[in-house]
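[step 3/7] fold_predict: job queued, chain A
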Amino acid sequence: MVSGRRGLTRSAVLAALTVLPGCADAADRGDQSAELARWRLSAAPTLSIGGAEVAEEHIIQEIRGIVRLPDGRLAVADGAQQRIRVYDAAGRHVTDWGRPGTGPGEYRWIGRLFPYRGDSLAVYDLLGRRLTVLDAAGNVGRIVPQSVRDAPPPGTIPSESCCNVVGAFADGSFLVALPESIPVDGTGTVYSTTDFVRLDAEGAAADTIATVRASEYRLSGSTRSGLALLRLAPRLVYAARRDGFVHGNGETRTVTARDAAAGVPVDMDTGLSRRPVTDAIRAQTESWYRAAAGNRTGGTPDVAYPDSMASFDWLVVDREDRVWVRETLVPGDTVARYRVLTADGRPVATIELPEGLWIQWIDERGLLGVERDAMDVAYVREYRIIRP
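[step 4/7] structure written:
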């Protein structure tokens, strides 16, 4: 399952609160990555779907999720046209499921696509506040309301307007992350909190699994306007597993695994440490933001930085329940470094990926992700994972 947060794209950069983090060799990081297996991707993708000058059935404007079905077909959520595009294992278009609307099999704004029980899929309609369960032929099995209504605690403001359905557990229930609650009393550095709630298979709120420390902010007033943007700071990331979920914010070296029933925490050491935010890193970050904005701004003097960047900024869970944790990137880097942990938290490998590859799905056949070209056109790409 993919993470609850994604890396920045050029089109999203101005609205984002975090940036892509940085690089250093193993000695500078002070970790034991040299002792781990070194995985790598195939030099070229084994499959590519998309482009600006292709037939209409291969155009996917806003990719909101990719799932490989048991028979090898790929289901790709198209958030611009509110449909699921289906391709065979060779990348040939097979059919489309869904359309814009409010009826069965219709969507107002697809926010996420993820696997459900058996060979079924679940589509989360963010604006419709509901989940649609589809069978392997695209038929609507049932519609599940997203019934969580969150009111932020007194003295806090929400980070966003709605919840995020993260994924599904093996028993058919769903994991929902509520918006972060950001304290607005006082001044200085503050941390938000986030509640994770389990919905039963029919959409009723079953229980709150956990309340976790989330993201770091700099506060200078009692309203949203008093919150300073902290680049490279700890930010909450999370992903669902079959019988639980993992989360972390890069404040420390650890990610935390929790079971779906009671949310009992188990810390997993990534071996990744926080590194100083130097003047050179600040300058590189601001330069990247100005370039991404088309140099329309003359700098961002109101943006703050922590003394040290988060140890990691993203994580993904593969189909074997391994956790892929990305070391925080500095904007402008071309390589993203991941540490791979087993399901029980043992580091087993490192792997370097192109910085712009947004991971969507990892299984024994390979890694499926989204890449964009210089014109910001999206492609579905598959790479083979080479393990020594």
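[step 5/7] annotate
The CA atoms of residues 73 and 89 lie 5 Å apart.
The domain at 13-386 is CATH 2.120.10.30 (Neuraminidase).
exit 0
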